[in-house]
Automatic annotation (TrEMBL):
EC identifiers of the protein: 2.4.1.-
Family membership noted in the UniProt record: Belongs to the UDP-glycosyltransferase family.
Source organism superkingdom: Eukaryota
UniProt key word Transferase: yes
GO molecular-function term, one example from the UniProt record: glycosyltransferase activity
Keywords attached to this entry: Glycosyltransferase, Transferase
The protein's name in its UniProt record: Glycosyltransferase
SUPFAM superfamilies: UDP-Glycosyltransferase/glycogen phosphorylase
Pfam families linked to this entry: UDPGT
Length: 470
């Protein structure tokens, strides 16, 4: 009999994609049977598209939609994004127990915000594994958070010194994730709730590999602080990223254009599934790009001054014509040099295209991995969540990125700063060095996932446990 594993991701492509990749791997490489449980409450167009295409035809990988929950009285638009996700998950997970009881998998794999499932699984004696889809930097911080919560009074952002995370580099308070910057907000309680429950799972999968996170993985395994919590075993099994994308007719136009550009000459600009700029910032970015005279593919979303994650639940939907909110004259002035794409682009295929030379990214973890796997250096434009700590790591430790930041006194990142950084990365020596290091990392990622590679060996340790249970 095939071992049967169930998955339960949170909504949002950044959660769904890596869990789905692991599911696929278990089915195709390891001969498992998988039930992939989908939270259908408030699903984005990108999510619908994903499950209608990528997921459709894999035998032994069954997509099971959880019944949409009635969230009309428990969610309002004033709630921050993580609160909305967590409330939606909690409501959807109420229907989980009978579904799991019937499926009877040998394990459930959850993500960071679906730990509510642990209770149902405990009652059903189903072991739970967590796939921590964000960076290992965030995991080390998150596992330290319950201690910080006990020991620090007031806001962490007001601490006079960087935060000393056991066995890790000290973290500047500006870099901590948004969800813990305001301890009075419900988002903080939700985040703390979920990370505090990580200790109850049987193991934590990391979407990383030994070369990228050697010191941090060693710290998680060996540092007395983490041993004392104690945390479950950690398994670096990445980088698991999308392997392919279904291309639309509009996408075909992007590739027709890219095919005609010189090798590594194009900057790809895309701020994740939810990243959205203010009107003022969008204008500065656009003119900075134009002034840099570099080729580009620019994924543009309707600006909003309300929230940097404004498109999280709407990404991939039909939007207005971008020329209505790009500055007047921009499209005409950059015709032939750049391509504007509305709302959503096939990111992976763009990153792996020969003419892509750099990626202006919000540094979400999936985007970061996709860039590194394809040897593409990064212009880091962090917006929300844990993106600032990812950006700092990529700039200061891994040295594959440069951060673009507003000058002192500037409300937004100005066009001259954009122009300077874009040129530096696309034309300068700094860009060459970053590109070289990104390519080396890309090779090490392929090795980690090849036969006998560190990530495969790591996953096989758990696969063997599962196989022994059937
Ligand atoms: N993505 C894409 N096209 C877009 C925007 C995003 O294909 O126009 C994909 C991207 O390739 C990545 C995911 O959406 O796999 C975004 O995940 P990430 O963790 O980088 O950021 P998040 O959206 O969770 O902030």
């Amino acid at each position: 009999m095939k071992p049967h594993i169930a998955f339960l991701p949170s909504p949002g492509m950044g959660h769904i994609i890596p869990l789905f990749q692991l599911a696929k791997r278990l089915v195709i490489q390891n001969g498992f049977h998988v039930s992939f449980l989908v939270n259908t409450t408030k699903a984005s167009a990108a999510q619908h598209h994903f499950f209608n295409s990528a997921a459709a035809l894999i035998p032994d990988l069954n997509i099971i939609n959880l019944p949409p929950a009635d969230i009309s009285t428990v969610i309002n638009q004033d709630m921050r994004i993580v609160t909305q996700i967590c409330v939606m998950n909690r409501e959807s997970i109420k229907s989980l127990k009978p579904i799991l009881a019937e499926l009877n998998p040998i394990s459930l794999i959850i993500d960071i915000f679906t730990t509510d499932a642990i209770d149902a699984c405990k009652e059903l004696s189903i072991p739970v594994y967590s796939f921590f889809t964000a960076s290992t930097v965030l995991l080390t911080f998150s596992l330290y958070l319950p201690t910080l919560d006990r020991e620090v009074e007031g806001e962490f952002v007001d601490l006079p010194m960087p935060i000393e995370i056991p066995g890790c580099r000290a973290m500047r308070t500006v870099d901590i994730l948004d969800q813990v910057k305001d301890r009075k907000n419900a988002e903080y309680d939700w985040y703390l709730f979920h990370v505090s429950r990580l200790r109850y799972v049987a193991g934590i999968f990391l979407n990383s590999w030994e070369v990228l996170d050697f010191d941090r993985v060693k710290t998680l395994k060996e540092n007395p602080f983490y041993r004392k919590i104690p945390i479950p075993p950690v398994f670096p099994i990445g980088p698991l990223i999308k392997e392919d994308e279904t291309l639309t007719e509009i996408d075909a136009e992007i590739f027709a254009w890219l095919d005609n550009q010189p090798c590594e000459s194009v900057l790809f600009i895309c701020l994740g599934s939810g990243g959205t700029l203010s009107s003022k910032q969008l204008i500065e970015l656009a003119w900075g790009l134009e002034m840099s005279k570099q080729r580009f593919v620019f994924v543009v979303r309707k600006p909003t001054d309300a929230s940097a994650s404004g498109s999280y639940f709407t990404s991939g939907g039909n939007e207005n014509d971008p020329s209505t909110y790009l500055p007047d004259g921009f499209v005409e002035k950059t015709r032939g040099i750049g391509l504007v794409v509305s709302s959503w682009a096939p990111q992976l295929a763009v990153l792996r295209h020969f003419s892509t030379g750099a990626f202006l990214s919000h540094c979400g973890w999936n985007s970061t991995l996709e860039s590194l796997v394809h040897g593409v250096p990064i212009i880091a434009w962090p917006l929300y969540a844990e993106q600032r700590m990812n950006a700092t790591m990529l700039v200061e430790e891994v040295k594959v990125a440069v951060k673009v930041e507003a000058e002192e006194g500037e409300e937004v990142i100005g066009r001259r700063t954009v122009e300077r950084v874009v040129r530096e990365v696309m034309e300068g020596e700094k860009g060459k060095g970053m590109r070289h290091r990104a390519k080396e990392l890309g090779k090490s990622a392929a090795k980690a996932l090849g036969i006998g590679g560190s990530s495969i060996e790591s996953l096989n340790r758990v696969v063997d446990i599962w196989k022994s249970q059937v």
